[in-house]
Amino acid sequence: MTPTLRWAGLACAAALVVAGLVVVVVSALPRAEPSVLDDPARLRAAGVATLRPEVLAVMPHDPTAYTEGFEIDGDALLESTGLTGRSQLRALDPATGAVRRAEPLPPAVYGEGVTATPTALWQLTYRDGIAYERDPATWTIRRTVPLEREGWGACHDGTRVVTSDGTDELVLRDPASFAPVRTVRVTAADVPVERLNELECTAEGVWANVWHTDRLVRIDPGSGRVTAVVDAAGLLPPGQRPDDPDAVLNGIAAVPGTDRFLLTGKYWPSMFRVRLVPS
Fold first, then answer.
1. 36-278 — its CATH code?
2. Backbone torsion region of residue 227, taken as left when φ is above 0, otherwise alpha when ψ lies between -120 and 50, otherwise beta
3. Phi/psi of residue 39, each to 5°?
4. What's the alpha-carbon Rg for the chain, to the nearest Å?
5. Which of 79, 134, 213, 260 pairs with 207 at a CA distance of 20 to 30 A?
6. CA 107 to chain centre
7. Domain residue extents for the chain
């Protein structure tokens, strides 16, 4: 996803000259209104579970990583990082956070989410209009396919690749061709949930980070209904959060065979092994 400017609500001004007077007209980019995700009572009334992360362990995370994708594949933690000229695909040690391997993307490409299928790694790009199919062992790019939307998050649910583009929609894709098969609109208590970002597919549903918030949502990919909301505020102590508006929660990886997850964020110095428990 783009850095903060897309969502910052910065004011823009236009000067008009009328009868010798300069009139300054100020218009603000739209700001998100208070979110339904911040209203636990409304969520519970709609049957949405409200959860919090219980921290089980803290591991180092590269504080220079602008995390876009985060997923465990075998014994490696895949991490894709973004920003033009700095994007990489990485394999981390999930126990220590150490970078085992790193593959840079072409300098002009802005990398985004990544997911593994049994036969490929799919890596998105932001606004480059392409996705890469990689060999899962060598990471060699087998082919480049068109991507008709912005690329944000990706995960594989065992049948389809699921992608996000920063809106309230998830796209379910054929894992062989990457062609879109179905689009699902995501709602919580009948309210659209926008800015869906990094994704993780599990048997219980699709987990999504909500960009520029400390919230995670679990989505039923059949109906698009949010079934759980996680409030992760305070997961990274305020004194450790970098002084950058984009240094937000953005990374969820399910630990296979357990009820645990790894969570991190952009430029975060730590990643956390957690269990999601009722709040």
1. 2.120.10.30
2. alpha
3. -120, 85
4. 19
5. 134
6. 22
7. 36-278
Q: How far apart are alpha carbons 172 and 163 in whole angstroms? A: 7
Contacts 24+ apart (CB under 8 A), 262-266: 262/70, 262/72, 262/77, 262/94, 263/53, 263/232, 263/235, 264/61, 264/67, 264/70, 265/67, 265/236, 266/65, 266/66, 266/67
Residue 193 forms beta bridges with which residues? none
pLDDT in tens, the chain (279 residues): 655 544 444 333 333 333 343 333 333 333 334 589 999 999 999 999 999 999 999 999 999 999 999 999 999 999 999 999 999 999 999 999 999 999 999 999 999 999 999 999 999 999 999 999 999 999 999 999 999 999 999 999 999 999 999 999 999 999 999 999 999 999 999 999 999 999 999 999 999 999 999 999 999 999 999 999 999 999 999 889 888 999 999 999 999 999 999 999 999 999 999 999 998
**Total-model pTM:** 0.88
- The rounded distance, in Å, linking the Cα atoms of 211 and 235 is 16
Q: How far apart, in whole angstroms, are the C-alpha atoms of residue 174 and residue 257?
A: 25
Looking up tokens 């985004």 gives 112
Burial of 222 (0-12, 13-18, 19+ CB in 10 A): exposed
